[in-house]
From TrEMBL:
UniProt region (Disordered), positions on chain: 1-49
Origin organism lineage: Bacteria, Bacillati, Actinomycetota, Thermoleophilia, Solirubrobacterales
Transcription regulator PadR N-terminal domain segment(s): 63-136
PANTHER family with a match to the protein in the record: PADR-FAMILY TRANSCRIPTIONAL REGULATOR (PTHR33169), TRANSCRIPTIONAL REGULATOR RV3488 (PTHR33169:SF14)
Protein name: PadR family transcriptional regulator
Gene3D superfamilies: Winged helix-like DNA-binding domain superfamily/Winged helix DNA-binding domain
Recorded superkingdom: Bacteria
Organism: Patulibacter brassicae
InterPro entries in alphabetical order: Metal_resp_DNA-bind_regulator (IPR052509), Tscrpt_reg_PadR_N (IPR005149), WH-like_DNA-bd_sf (IPR036388), WH_DNA-bd_sf (IPR036390)
Compositional bias segments (type: Basic and acidic residues): 7-21
């Protein structure tokens, strides 16, 4: 019997986090200037730590978590909250956020409602019971990857005497 897709994704997320942590600790080659945040050398300058967490499903999990707050949320506010919560480590642009919100709504994980039904202004989203279940499932996959990144950062701090 083959492992479940959930276990495969978890394993892939852990592997991505380990690879990102290793990539983040590599120094640039002699004469090579670091690029991106924190000296990462990935294409487009994206930090490999944030990239690994994204691949593990962090943005989707954060959105599902933030949709469960007392007040309904809209796309730009979610973008701001993610940036605030991650101290700028994870940024989401509207070209990512709005398709994600539409997909969550289509999958029955969130419900959306226009602020003004007659004129389309902001669309507010709330988490559904199915979204709560998906959030818990994702949490089981993402938190181990987040823990691995935290351990890698802790090891770096220890090595550097911090």
């Amino acid at each position: 019997m083959s492992p479940s897709p959930s276990l495969d994704r978890r394993s892939a997320a852990r592997k991505a986090a380990r690879e990102a942590a290793r990539a983040a600790t590599d120094a640039p080659a002699h004469g090579e200037a670091p690029t991106g945040r924190g000296g990462s050398r990935t294409s487009g300058g994206q930090d490999p730590l944030a990239g690994a967490l994204r691949r593990a499903g962090l943005v989707r999990l954060l959105v599902l978590q933030l949709l469960d707050e007392a007040e309904p949320a809209y796309g730009n506010r979610l973008i701001e909250r993610i940036r605030e919560l991650s101290a700028g480590l994870v940024t989401v642009n509207p070209n990512t956020m709005y398709p994600l919100l539409r997909a969550l709504e289509e999958d029955g994980l969130a419900t959306g409602e226009w602020e003004h039904p007659v004129r389309r202004s902001r669309r507010f989203y709330r988490l559904t019971p199915a979204g709560e279940a998906e959030r818990e499932r994702l949490r089981e996959e993402v938190l181990p990857a987040l823990d691995e990144v935290a351990e890698a950062v802790s090891a770096l701090r220890h090595e550097l005497g911090g």
